Amino acid sequence: MNKGKIFLCLILIGISFFIWNCSSNKSKEISVNVYMVALQGTKLHGKLIGCNDILVPSVRTVLVEGNEVEASMNELLSAKDTEELKNFVKGPALLLYQATTANGVADVYLKGDFNISTICDIQRIKEQLYETAKQFSEIKRVNIFINDQTLESYLSLAEQGFK
Predict the structure, then answer these.
(1) C-alpha to C-alpha distance for 100 and 144, rounded to whole angstroms
(2) Per residue in 30-44, pLDDT tens?
(3) In terms of pTM, does the model score above 0.70?
(4) b/e sequence 132-150, b meaning 16+ C-beta within 10 Å
(5) What is the Cα–Cα distance from 109 to 80, expressed in whole angstroms?
(6) E strands, the chain, where?
(7) Distance (Å, whole) CA 34 – CA 125
(8) Are 123 and 49 in contact (CB under 8 A)?
(9) Domains of the chain: which residue ranges?
């Protein structure tokens, strides 16, 4: 075999390795906390939030394909209620549109609407979202948007309905 053919074979092997490496699945499994709500009167421990509820971390194993914030938020959106722990982050066509992280800031974009039955649900939703997103050491600030407005603006409008 001449040097030209050997060189060509080495180039083809290198290109094949590069393509395989770039296209291989870079996902990984990690443990995250999905923050759920234990209603007033519970014996569970966690962070005290409005209406004397307790915010309780529920450890889940998730597959990270984008970033950790995105994976944990998707897990929160799909979390089901248990006998003691409730998920208030749910609603008609509610979905995570995008979650990005850069320079210690997580930006979370949601679409849809929340089911808000009582004024207590407002604080529950807010706490669940922020605690789930900010659990990672590299995240110093979290911005959450729903339907192209800040979460605070959205929840403020909802709160007006209870006054």
Answers:
(1) 11
(2) 999 999 999 998 999
(3) yes
(4) bbbbbeebeebebbbeeee
(5) 21
(6) 28-38, 47-49, 53-64, 95-102, 105-111, 141-146, 149-150
(7) 12
(8) yes
(9) 28-160
